[in-house]
Amino acid sequence: MKLDETVRKETAYAAVWVAALSLVMEAVFLLLRKWEMPVLWGNLIGAAAAVGNYLLLAVTVTRAAGGPKEKIALKVRSSMTARLLGQAGICAAAIGLLHTNVYATVIPLLFPRIGIAFRPWVDRKRGKTAADSEGSEMLD
Amino acid sequence: MEMVSLAVGIMLGLCGVGAGLALIAGIGPGIGEGQAVAAACEAIGRQPEAKSDVTSTMIMGCAIAETTGLYGLIIGILLIFVAPGIFSGVLKDTVLALK
């Protein structure tokens, strides 16, 4: 399966942010003296679910093109439902069966969103032009 | 003690209902995302040279829209796995204090 260049770039960006914020979260658990192995396992599973969800989202929206508008909308909607249920299943299985830390499992799901919030700042640091980062600024 | 068991049972049931209601938040983003992607595909069709920029913005937009559903999912998971322990502890303490 060959991935689109944009998909690879966006997923890598999200993965870097998830990894960085996971380290921060682990440090916070350490500082609070609540760090245990279930925290690490929960973090790893939550982070993998978050990055996997982002990758599947990117693949879905890039491959949705073609066909009538209603069909595209339906395809994306069903993908979103499946991904949400998949994440719920992964988190529930990790917490219920592997007894991972609940907070360490669910918090990483929001890390890609935090990365997107910092996107205009990252683009400015990279020296992108205003026109290049216009889209991401509009989203925030 | 029977009253406590009944109260804990009702509380567990309500946590389950709450988790189900929280997941309703997943419906809206799906509809919005579908509309956005369909419109973006039309835009790419009109301007194929802007495909990379449109796709990038579209992915970020979808991820942002999806966060609302994720909030609901997280609240649902917390209601199922965390809240019952906290609430039943509070309930038992209250009943013991009243005795």
Looking at the structure, the CATH topology of chain B is F1FO ATP Synthase
Tally of domains of chain A: 1
Largest interface in this structure? A-B, 47 and 40 residues
CATH class of chain B: Mainly Alpha
Shape of chain B: rod-shaped
- What is the total number of structural domains of chain B? 1
Counting DSSP E segments of at least 2 residues, the number of strands of chain A comes to: 0
Helix content of chain B: over 70%
Kindly name the structural category of chain B: mainly alpha
Average pLDDT confidence of chain B is 86
- For the record, the CATH architecture of chain B stands as Up-down Bundle
Total number of helical segments of chain A?
A: 7
Shape of chain A: flat
Mean pLDDT of chain A: 87
Listing every helix as H and every strand as E from the N terminus to the C terminus, the arrangement of chain B reads HHHH
Radius of gyration of chain B: 22 Å
Derived structural class of chain A: mainly alpha
The CATH superfamily of chain B is: F1F0 ATP synthase subunit C
Number of helices of chain B: 4
Runs of chain B in which pLDDT lies below 50 for 5 or more consecutive residues are: none
Oligomer: heterodimer
Would you mind describing this structure in some detail?
The complex is a heterodimer of chains A (140) and B (99). Helices cover 80% and strands 0% of the residues of chain A. Chain A has 140 residues and is mainly alpha-helical. Chain A has one domain. The mean pLDDT of chain A is 87. Chain B is mainly α. Chain B has one domain (26-98): F1FO ATP Synthase (Up-down Bundle), CATH 1.20.20.10. Chain B is built from 4 helices and no strands. Chain B has helices at 2-22, 27-46, 51-81, 83-98. In chain B, helix 1 (2-22) runs antiparallel to helix 3, helix 1 runs antiparallel to helix 4 and helix 2 (27-46) packs antiparallel against helix 3. Chain B starts with a helix and ends with a helix. The mean pLDDT of chain B is 86. The A-B interface holds A 4-7, 9-10, 14, 53-54, 57-58, 61-62, 64-66, 69-70, 72-77, 80-81, 84, 87-88, 91-92, 95-96, 102, 105-106, 109-110, 112-113, 116, 119, 132, 135-136, 138-139 and B 23, 26, 29-31, 33-35, 37-42, 44-45, 52-53, 55-64, 66-67, 69-70, 73-74, 76-78, 80-82.
